[in-house]
Amino acid sequence: MNLIPEPADVLNRECDCTLTDMPLLRRRMDSIACRNEPRLIADSHPHLFSDAPVFLRAMHAERMQHIVAAVHRIVKLPKYRAAVLPMAPAIAQHEPLAQGVFLGFDFHASSAGPKLIEINTNAGGALINVALRAAQRACCDGAEELLSGQADANKLEQRIVGMFMNEWRLARADRPLRSIAIIDEAPTTQFLHPEFLLFKALFESMGIDAYIADSADLEVVGEKVMIGGRPIDLIYNRLTDFYFEKPRHRVMREILDRNLAVVTPHPHAHALYSNKQNLSILSDAAALRQAGASLDDIEALTRGIPTTRAVEGSGERWWNERKQWFFKPLHGFGSRGTYRGDKITRRAFADVMNGRYVAQELTPPGERLRTVAGARQMFKVDIRCYAYASEIQLMAARLYQGQTTNFRTAGGGFAPVHVVAALK
Hints:
alpha+beta; Rossmann fold; Dna Ligase, domain 1
């Protein structure tokens, strides 16, 4: 019996159109985000955006939402918390009233279905992808219908602002939110600094004072947090020192300990969601049953999360089984120090065995075939779901070639995701 092909799969193989008005997108980024940059966005970030859309089966999008909601339910279980919180430092034990903005659920979505490979607590790129969404233009009647079913950029911006306002209400009730600091380490040198400028512009458009600053710029004066003599109500935390362990982040620790400002996302959220060892529980049916998970959630998570294990024990056994695993450093981020087992060298394997690593069942990413520089090329695809309070707010794809996601591939970068229903 011949099966009807999924339209999303056919489009990912055969559609060579672009739905993105790239000149419009770059002008928008230049006017809003890069007014303080010495170079245009096309020069400073040539591979930030891909002009090729990615198509996703509607059934897979539904499964992703089911997995995201299931993870949130598991995180609330006392036995799960009792298992994961002891692995985190003392600063993560206290639970703030704020939930934590921009959880990022990263999926590989192939024909076998979506597989959750990682959860991040300060996932970058959301507002950049809103700008990308604003530059979508229909290239045919079918594309017009496809775009009409997607949330537009204004709605997405409203969701983002609403998320920050909800964080503030949870922590400070009815007090007015007057100021937000976007904090990172040397923010002007960060690859996603253009996004910080977009956030600043968005917050200011809502009548909120917004500042981009290094954590070293923060001062505690009495019971207030200050930057250059200006009071700060909420800190949008983009640091990758997730537990504020570096000496330069001492003030961040004090702010959190004394509840002097609302910090989001925070160390407690990282301990519950993003410690890579947590995936060893979330992918294990027996561990989930022990935690008190429902049968439905156990099925969704064990089906949707590749088996993950701590790398410990016999090095010989791990070497013999290496081709079935992807090795990730326990405290790494941004694909640094990661290795595909079927490509790992003996020297790198020794680093894995001598370090603190987890091994995740090797799961192929999705694929997108498109023409670049006159030649048909295959790109790998990751899909990032930005979520808050168990709901996916925005989906975005990352197109790349090589072992891990990057923004160095011609024709690659962030790409819009369009959900396509199956033929009836």
